[in-house]
Amino acid sequence: MVNDKMSKLDRLEEAINEDILAMTPEEILEEAKADGEDTAAFAKSMDAWLQGAIAQADSTRLKNARAALERDRDRSKANVVPMRKRKATSRPEGFAPDTMAARNGKELSERDKAALDEDFDELFDDDAWGDDQDETDK
User: Fold this and answer.
1) Entry pTM
2) Residue 1 pLDDT grade (very low, low, confident, very high; cuts 50, 70, 90)
3) Fewest Cβ atoms closer than 10 Å to its Cβ: which of 31, 86, 119, 120?
4) In sequence order, what are the residues at sequence separation of 6 or more whose Cβ sits closer than 8 angstroms to the Cβ of residue 20?
């Protein structure tokens, strides 16, 4: 059943639109040429119109984004909590950071060297291996 709220003119317009949308590009081109249209000029004017429409849409989108940004900035100002600034404390003289990253990869500290020497001594301690170990290696 037909929608009673649509006038006859509205139904005719809808039918024409459906017919046009159902046509293939080749059929539309044939019909335009049959009507004596300059299809190249029409395509050029449509390209120009499309570029203008894209530029206008981009401009509108940018304007809306800027407005949203301003709304967010206004909203976020209310939630900003000021923080106290810490005073810079001076390091004691002779302070050496614990990690290589804190020393920017520079040479090892005396404490690091002593720890490495101790680790090597434990690793290569001949007394750590039993006498039976030496005999099985031969």
Assistant:
1) 0.36
2) very low
3) 86
4) 28
